[in-house]
Amino acid sequence: MANEENRIKKVTVNRDLCIGAASCVVAAADYFALDGENKAVIKEGGTANDETLMLAAQSCPTKAIFLFDGEGKQMYP
Ligand code: SF4
């Protein structure tokens, strides 16, 4: 499955859904951070592999994190 390791090409956070639970920050501390409004943001230059990103997205209680592949197809949720 090595060739499927980095299928996630785009990550977005729906700020209206985010409740600042910070599970994503715990799951992927090098990728997500909370901003001044307690909403998750993607860190500048942040890195995470697909597994970490998927875990972070799945950990979000409100499913505010959206993952897309290179063709723009939504992978999660
Ligand atoms: S886990 Fe979800 S609700 Fe919590 S900070 Fe991250 S995006 Fe927001």
TrEMBL record:
Gene3D superfamilies: 3.30.70.20
Transmembrane segments: none
UniProt KW keywords: Electron transport, Iron, Iron-sulfur, Metal-binding, Transport
Pfam families noted in UniProt: Fer4_13
Keyword Metal-binding: yes
InterPro entries noted in UniProt: Fe-S_cluster_ET
Domain of life: Bacteria
The keyword Acetylation is assigned to this record: no
GO MF annotation: an example: metal ion binding
Protein name: Ferredoxin
Organism: Candidatus Ryanbacteria bacterium RIFCSPLOWO2_12_FULL_47_9c
